[in-house]
Write a structure and sequence with these properties.
Layout (H helix, E strand, L loop, with lengths): L8 H5 L12 E4 L3 H13 L4 E4 L15 E4 L6 E3 L4 E5 L4 H8 L4 E2 L10 H7 L6 H4 L6 E7 L5 E5 L4 H7 L8 E8 L1 E2 L5 E8 L3 H12 L6 E8 L12 E8 L5 H14 L4 E5 L2 H5 L11 E9 L4 H13 L6 E6 L3 H4 L14 E9 L5 H15 L20 H24 L15
Parallel strand pairs: 1-3, 2-3
Antiparallel strand pairs: 4-5, 5-9, 6-10, 7-8, 7-9, 11-13, 11-14, 12-13, 12-16, 15-17, 16-17
The protein binds flavin-adenine dinucleotide (FAD).
The site of flavin-adenine dinucleotide (FAD) has 36 residues, from strand 2, helix 4 and strand 9.
Keywords: FAD, Flavoprotein, Oxidoreductase
Family: Belongs to the oxygen-dependent FAD-linked oxidoreductase family.
Cofactor: FAD
C-alpha cells in the first residue's frame, strides 16, 4: 500500500491522463482476490470512494480518486494460452502482456492499437483494434470473466454461469465488480503480416479520403483499415507538417495474396507520398505508442456515422487542417465485417451497423491549453452530430464534469439496454460501490 508521504506516491496516484490530478488516501497494489475483497470491504465500511485501476489508461481518468482508495491491479498481469486457443489474462494486464504471450504461438486476441493500454478497461467498454472487422470487439471475444463483487463474493460469468452478467461485461464497463481474470478466444495470425501505412501530405488529402471511402465499400472481413490525421511527434522523424495515414492490416493467415491485391488497389487508386510496411504483430501493435504517452493531458470525443460524403469530408478536412499541434489526432475506423454481424442486443455495445467510427483524441502537454484544446474537440464533435448514426463508445470519451449520469448512460446505451444494465447493477452493486466509471445509475 502506498499513502501520501510515501516514496513512489506521486507515481502511484497518477494515471495516463495528465489532467487528472487526484490525491487518494491509499493506493493498494493487490496480489489476489482476497486482497481485493478486503479493500472493497474497507472502502465500504469507511464510506470511502473506491477507484479500480487496470492499465490506468482510462481517458476519463477514473483510475484514481481524491481522498479515497485505489485498487491497483497492476500486479495481476499473467497471461496463459491453452491448446484450445483460449487465453486467460490477469485483470491488470496490458495489451503488450497479451500480445507478447500469444504472438509466439501465432495467435492474437482482438484488442486495441496502443500496447500500454489496459485489457481491463478496454474490454469492459468494448475494445476496437486491428481485428475488429475480422473477429469483433475484444468484448465479443470474451468467453468468461472471474470477478470479486461489491460484497466480496467470487463470481464467474460465462455463457453457462451468470450469462446475463457476461452480457453486461461486454460493454457495460467496470460497474459490476473487479475482474481478476478475463478468458478470451484467440485467433490465428499470418506468420508474416501484411500491414502498411500509406502516408499523404496535405494537398493530397481530398483525393486520398475519397479513394479510401470507395475502397472500403466492398472489403472482406480480414481487411481492417483506419484513416488517421496527425501532426507527427519528433520521434517519428516525419517532419512537423500534418499528415494523413491510411493504415491497413490483413488478418487471413491462409490467403496473403488477396490482402496484397486489395492493398495494391488502394495504392493504385491514390499513390501515397510515402509508405511503411510492417511484418511483425507486436511491432505493429506498438507502432503508434509514441502518440499516447502517459502524462499528456487528454480529452476525447467520438461519433459513429454511415456516410463519408462531401459534407462529412468537409468537416473532417477543415478540422484536420486546423489541428497543428502535436499530440492530438483524428482516427476514422472502418467498421463492418464480424463486428456488424453481432446482433445489436447481444451486448451493451451500441450501433453495430455503423460503417465508420470517428475518434477525436485530444492530447497536449501544457495545462495552459486545457480550455482551448478541450473546446476544439467539443466543437469538432458538435459539427459531426448531424451525421451521427447514434453510437457513442464509452472508452473514447473524456471527462465531462457535472453531466447527468442517467442522461449520459442513456446516450451511450439507449433505453432498452440501459434498463437491462440497471437490473444487473441492482443485483451486483446496489450501493453503487463501483461508481467511478461510466456509471450505470442504480437509483
Ligand atoms: C493511448 C490510448 C490508446 C487507446 N487505444 C484504444 C484502442 O485502440 N481501442 C480502444 O477500444 N480503446 C482504446 N483506448 C481507450 C481505452 O480502451 C480506455 O481508455 C480503457 O478504459 C483503458 O483501460 P485501462 O484498464 O488501461 O484503464 P483504467 O483507467 O485502469 O480503467 C478504466 C476503467 O475500467 C474499469 N476497469 C479496468 N480494469 C478493470 C478490471 N480488471 N475490473 C473491473 N473494472 C476494471 C474501471 O472502472 C476503470 O475506471 C485507448 C486509450 C488510450 C489512453
Amino acid at each position: 500500500m502506498i499513502a501520501p508521504g510515501d516514496e513512489g506516491y506521486a507515481f502511484a496516484r497518477s494515471v495516463w491522463n495528465g489532467i487528472i490530478d487526484k490525491h487518494p488516501s491509499a493506493v493498494v497494489r493487490v496480489a489476489d482476490e482476497d486482497d481485493i475483497a478486503a479493500v472493497i470491504a474497507y472502502a465500504r465500511d469507511h464510506d470511502l470512494p473506491l477507484a479500480v485501476r487496470g492499465g490506468g489508461h482510462g481517458v476519463s481518468g477514473n483510475g484514481t480518486v481524491d481522498r479515497g482508495i485505489v485498487v491497483d491491479l497492476g500486479d495481476l498481469r499473467t497471461v496463459e494460452v491453452d491448446d484450445a486457443q483460449r487465453v486467460r489474462v490477469g485483470g491488470g494486464a496490458t495489451l503488450s502482456d497479451v500480445d507478447s504471450a500469444t504472438a509466439p504461438q501465432g495467435l492474437a486476441v482482438p484488442l486495441g492499437v496502443v500496447s500500454r493500454t489496459g485489457v481491463g478497461g478496454l474490454t469492459l467498454g468494448g475494445g476496437i483494434g486491428w481485428l475488429t472487422r475480422s473477429y469483433g470487439l475484444s468484448a465479443d471475444n470474451l468467453l468468461a470473466a472471474d470477478l470479486v463483487t461489491a460484497t466480496g463474493d467470487r463470481v464467474r460469468a460465462s455463457d453457462t454461469e451468470n450469462a446475463e452478467l457476461l452480457w453486461g461485461l461486454r460493454g457495460g464497463g467496470g460497474n459490476f465488480g473487479v475482474v481478476t481474470q478475463f478468458t478470451f478466444r484467440a485467433h490465428r495470425l499470418p506468420t508474416e503480416l501484411c500491414a502498411v501505412n500509406f502516408i499523404y501530405a496535405e494537398p493530397r488529402w481530398p483525393e486520398a479520403v475519397r479513394a479510401w471511402e470507395e475502397w472500403t465499400r466492398d472489403l472482406p472481413d480480414p481487411m481492417q483499415s483506419i484513416m488517421t490525421f496527425i501532426v507527427p511527434p519528433a520521434e517519428l522523424e516525419a517532419g512537423d507538417e500534418p499528415l494523413l495515414l491510411l493504415s491497413a492490416f490483413w488478418s487471413d493467415p491462409d490467403d496473403r495474396a488477396t490482402g496484397e491485391r486489395l492493398l495494391e488497389d488502394l495504392r493504385r487508386a491514390v499513390p501515397p507520398d510515402a509508405e511503411e510496411a510492417e511484418t511483425d504483430w507486436t511491432a505493429w501493435q506498438s507502432a503508434v505508442d509514441v502518440l499516447g504517452r502517459k502524462g499528456l493531458r487528454g480529452y476525447w470525443k467520438n461519433t459513429s456515422f454511415d456516410t463519408l460524403d462531401d459534407a462529412v469530408i468537409e468537416v473532417l478536412l477543415h478540422r484536420a487542417r486546423e489541428q497543428r499541434w502535436v499530440g492530438t489526432g483524428i482516427d476514422v475506423h472502418h467498421m463492418g465485417g464480424a463486428f456488424a454481424r453481432v446482433p445489436e442486443d447481444a451486448t451493451p455495445f451500441p450501433a453495430r451497423t455503423s460503417r465508420f467510427w470517428l475518434n477525436v483524441y485530444g492530447a497536449w502537454p501544457d495545462p495552459a491549453d486545457d480550455a482551448t484544446r478541450t473546446a476544439w474537440v467539443r466543437g469538432f464533435a458538435h459539427e459531426m452530430e448531424p451525421f451521427s448514426s447514434g453510437g457513442l463508445y464509452v472508452n473514447f470519451l473524456g471527462r465531462d464534469e457535472g453531466t447527468d449520469r442517467h442522461e449520459a448512460a442513456r446516450a451511450v446505451y439507449g433505453s432498452e439496454k440501459l434498463d437491462r444494465l440497471v437490473a444487473l447493477k441492482r443485483r451486483y452493486d446496489p450501493q453503487n460501490i463501483f461508481h467511478l466509471n461510466h456509471n450505470i445509475p442504480v437509483e
